[in-house]
Write a structure and sequence with these properties.
Order of helices and strands: EEEHHEEEEHHHEEHE
Distance between the termini: 6 Å
Number of domains: 1
Largest sheet: 5 strands, antiparallel
Strand order of the largest sheet: 1-10-9-6-7
Strand content: 15-25%
CATH class: Alpha Beta
Helix content: 25-40%
Number of strands: 10
CATH superfamily: PPM-type phosphatase domain
Low-confidence stretches: none
Number of helices: 6
């Protein structure tokens, strides 16, 4: 089903231009890539190159490429970058997820936790392992609040961004392991099990695809931004209504990079 783009927006979480999100917009596809450097890798060069190459590949790929073929190509691309960088632990050294619309198949494709809203219906996925990590972080930060520290003092601590590093590394160990209920899928150089290749028939009307930097998906960018702004005011640490594995900080615009692209899908 053909489409016409309505809105697109991308913003990194920090007060600079760096972001691990990418917007995809070609003649036959549109969507979002959402990258992560992983719990054991602090640099940005490898994930940046991986995301840029993945974006370029998707925007130039054949209009009738299948989802399994696309995932296989992206997996090979990620593997090449990691081997070139000398990585041997593919689970904890970063990767990316995506949400993508295929005009040829009339489907929304997803690997990972990108979100979408199609003709009024929102579809979000929440990993059990991610919730465990977020709740553990909330427990630690609530304990600090109980000592009398205020939000600004907590954000200023050197360990603020590292409270659950060990748990995030444990979470990454479940990547692409379909035999475990804590597992989930991502493009990281490993084979992605078929059960993590999600397909959804697209409905005519508005389709909005976002990275998980938006806690909730609405029909417009303005609505998504308003809800995010509300949550950042009432829950800046992201330990209550907006439970997350990371929070707002003194040098940040939000708790995570955020990207959105929307289109009208025609019958």
């Amino acid at each position: 089903m053909p489409f016409s783009i309505i809105e697109q927006f991308s913003c990194g979480k920090a007060n600079n231009s760096y972001s691990e999100d990418r917007i995809i917009h070609s003649r036959h596809h549109f969507g979002i890539l959402d990258g992560s450097r992983g719990p054991h890798y602090s640099g940005s060069d490898v994930i940046t190159a991986m995301l840029d190459d993945a974006k370029a590949f998707i925007e130039s790929m054949p209009f009738d490429i299948s989802l399994p073929k696309l995932v296989a190509e992206l997996t090979d691309l990620a593997l090449e970058h990691k081997r070139a960088a000398g990585f041997t632990d593919y689970r904890t050294s970063g990767g990316f997820v995506f949400g993508l619309y295929s005009e040829h198949f009339g489907e929304i494709w997803r690997v990972g936790d990108c979100k979408f809203r199609n003709n009024g219906l929102e579809n979000a996925v929440f990993w059990e392992s991610e919730e465990i990590c977020a709740r553990a972080r909330a427990l630690k930060l609530n304990a600090l609040l109980q000592t009398g520290l205020d939000v600004d003092a907590i954000m200023a601590r050197t360990d603020y961004d590292h409270l659950i590093d060990d748990l995030l590394a444990d979470e990454a160990s479940f990547l692409n392991r379909p035999d475990n209920p804590l597992s989930f899928g991502a493009i990281n150089g490993q084979q992605v099990p078929e059960c993590y290749l999600e397909r959804f028939p697209a409905r005519a009307g508005r389709l909005v695809i976002t990275s998980d930097g938006y806690p909730k998906v609405f029909a417009s960018l303005d609505q998504c931004e308003q809800e995010l702004a509300r949550l950042l005011v009432i829950d800046p640490l992201c330990i209550a209504e907006n439970l997350q594995c990371k929070g707002l900080g003194p040098d940040r615009l939000s708790f995570d990079d955020r990207s959105l692209i929307s289109a009208d899908i025609q019958c």
